[in-house]
Amino acid sequence: MTPEERRAELAESLAEVRERLAKACHAAGRSPEDVELLAVTKTFPASDVALLSDLGLSAFAENREQEARGKVSEFAELRPQAARRWHMVGQLQRNKARAVARWADVVESVDSERLAEALSRATTNALETGERERPLDVLVQVSLDGTTGRGGCAPEDVPRLADMITRTSDLRLRGVMAVAPLGGDADVSFDTLSSISERLRVDHPEAVDVSAGMSGDLESAVAHGSTRVRVGTALLGGRRLTSP
């Protein structure tokens, strides 16, 4: 596929996703401007990110630090003047915190105090060495099915983790993130997340982000107050293998 053909393919997919978002927002009585589209570019090359940037997107997500590191650098070379905001959405080990703090604008998968502490130290170090210019925005990932296999802390642990994050100097609590349980009822899951978000904002009014909904369930997420949907397959197609 030539770059021109790939651009046309992505443009068509983007138009379809935006139409779905617009319809979902209309059904929920919300403005499409209230829901951010986050392109999940894992396993796709930096050239696709560049094309999406040309088509007007500026928020991109990765779930593996090693792959993201090279892609972020390559994209910066391909589109040095482009607006961009990189999100880490995958499970993150503490020993990767220092590397992530060098390229991520947002980490959506903070699910433990130990990880938050590691990210805080890494961000402070990156600010001191000039490897980043601003504090790190973070979201608390919530497990909605009682398991930790896909990441996330228990709902009852969210307040304590949120309080700990706000006590750090270089992390900024922005809200919550969750993945609907496999085989579960998305409406029930996202309604639960909405309630958790509402309770969190009582003590942390700045934590307004609700990152929920993917290619298969974004309509349900929007209906329950998601402010950011994370779309990969519906936007970029089937996963392609790339070298990390």
TrEMBL record:
<dbReference type="Pfam" id="PF01168">
    <property type="entry name" value="Ala_racemase_N"/>
</dbReference>
<dbReference type="InterPro" id="IPR011078">
    <property type="entry name" value="PyrdxlP_homeostasis"/>
</dbReference>
<feature type="modified residue" description="N6-(pyridoxal phosphate)lysine">
    <location>
        <position position="42"/>
    </location>
</feature>
<protein>
    <recommendedName>
        <fullName>Pyridoxal phosphate homeostasis protein</fullName>
    </recommendedName>
</protein>
<dbReference type="InterPro" id="IPR001608">
    <property type="entry name" value="Ala_racemase_N"/>
</dbReference>
<dbReference type="GO" id="GO:0030170">
    <property type="term" value="F:pyridoxal phosphate binding"/>
</dbReference>
<keyword id="KW-0663">Pyridoxal phosphate</keyword>
<feature type="domain" description="Alanine racemase N-terminal">
    <location>
        <begin position="15"/>
        <end position="239"/>
    </location>
</feature>
<dbReference type="InterPro" id="IPR029066">
    <property type="entry name" value="PLP-binding_barrel"/>
</dbReference>
<comment type="function">
    <text>Pyridoxal 5'-phosphate (PLP)-binding protein, which is involved in PLP homeostasis.</text>
</comment>
<comment type="similarity">
    <text>Belongs to the pyridoxal phosphate-binding protein YggS/PROSC family.</text>
</comment>
